[in-house]
Write a structure and sequence with these properties.
Shape: elongated
Helix content: 25-40%
Strand content: 5-15%
Strand order of the largest sheet: 6-5-4-3-9
Number of strands: 9
Length: about 400
């Protein structure tokens, strides 16, 4: 940007140490513990910043007013030599935005011009995306551009500065096509960056949850959280019914203020609530709201947090349990839906959060199944069934749900 006094400012760049830290973070799969010790503090700050990509900004006030403000800021940044709308079309555009992009609500002499603005926008916003992907999208867009150019000409009056030629309907449609084609190329990259931000935010949340487990254990004789004292067996996947829901055991951390509900909301689960439920809630309201599967505590085997061998406490939501509840066949080696089925985060009893590319952990224990079903699957003794009352038989059997 060139200010009025003609001084040219250099473009901001990252310091070499920050670039090295970000590269190391990416190479480590966003696992902070795998980053070189000297780069770890900078990598942690980078991971925290990437986590902000998943946060939804809150804008207070009239959304139409916000849109109009952005429009005017963008317009004021234009160079004088660029084409500009005439005053009447300029006012009609503002009126259309302020009326919530509904031309029928614009009154008076601006109505017809607002309708024309809406028609131009519809060419971009209402064009369906073909199933063939980016290549088909580009071909379809260009075909629609040609059709639009041949069928109609805009009555919009464009004023220009310094004698620049006036814009035609074809010019505006061509610009819209370039934007649409550019978006089709850039969107997958943006999606990947957002996914990386979700991974960083997820593992940061698990770090806070690990501290909540430790605090709970300190006040409850090293025990893991349970909703009721008498969990002796039965169905454990009926979310919303605390006496029949293993998720309610995990919700105990929220119920007793050891953590907040947003810390147990994985960014990869769009249905996860991030605002506290009502005071009477002792569980999530539905299976879809549950982001993490908790070690099954129904049954006789309940390990203490800091005694015995290291074991899994929670992991990203089990796809096996969700398929079994729906009555569908499942892949016992499938990954959680939270992170595009690329893997899942696992929180261990020692407080370490690990990214696992498969539910098959060392030495061959499957997160989604109790050992008895793992053996049945290995021996191929018929269809694999999960009924929601299975429990781990030993403390070494890592089995989480729902």
């Amino acid at each position: 940007m060139m200010p009025d006094d003609g001084v040219q400012f250099d473009q901001p760049t990252l310091a070499s140490d920050d670039i090295a830290a970000i590269d190391a973070l990416v190479e480590a799969g966003f696992e902070i513990d795998s980053v070189e010790q000297s780069l770890r503090p900078r990598a942690e700050r980078a991971a925290a910043l990437l986590g902000l990509l998943d946060q939804t900004p809150t804008l207070n006030g009239d959304s139409a007013l916000v849109d109009a403000t952005y429009l005017r800021v963008a317009r004021s940044a234009s160079q004088p030599a660029e084409p500009a709308l005439c005053a009447d079309d300029d006012e009609a555009l503002d009126a259309w935005v302020m009326e919530g992009y509904d031309a029928s609500r614009v009154a008076g002499s601006r109505a017809e011009r607002a309708r024309q603005h809406q028609q131009i926008a519809a060419v971009v916003t209402e064009t369906p995306i073909p199933a063939g992907g980016s290549s088909a999208l580009i071909d379809d867009t260009l075909a629609r551009i040609q059709s639009a150019i041949e069928s109609q000409e805009s009555n919009l009056q464009i004023e220009t500065h310094r004698g620049a030629p006036s814009l035609r309907w074809a010019d505006l449609i061509s610009v819209a096509a370039v934007l649409l084609i550019g978006a089709s190329v850039i969107w997958p990259v943006v999606g990947q960056i957002r996914h990386r931000g979700q991974l960083a935010s997820c593992v940061a949340g698990l770090g806070n949850v690990a501290m909540a487990f430790d605090s709970y254990a300190s006040g409850h004789k090293d025990a893991l959280p349970v909703a009721t004292a008498g969990l002796g067996g039965g169905t454990w996947w009926n979310v919303g019914k605390p006496s029949h829901s293993n998720a309610a055991n995990l919700y105990t951390l929220i119920d007793h203020d050891y953590t907040s509900i947003d810390q147990l909301a994985c960014p990869g689960n769009p249905n996860a609530p991030t605002v506290e439920l009502d005071d009477q809630a002792h569980d999530w309201r539905s299976l879809e709201e549950v982001s993490y599967s908790y070690r099954i505590l129904f049954g006789a085997v309940r390990p203490n947090l800091h005694s015995g061998a290291r074991f899994v406490i929670i992991a990203d939501a089990s796809p096996v349990v969700r398929a079994a509840i729906a009555g569908k066949e499942f892949d016992p080696y499938g990954n959680s839906l939270n992170h595009r089925q690329k893997g899942q985060h696992v929180l261990w009893s020692d407080g370490a959060a690990q990214w696992a590319k498969t539910p098959q952990l060392e030495p061959g224990d499957n997160l989604w199944l109790p050992r008895a079903l793992e053996i049945a699957y290995e021996q191929k003794t018929g269809r694999l069934n999960l009924a929601g009352h299975e429990t781990p038989k030993t403390t070494e059997d890592d089995f989480v749900g729902p």
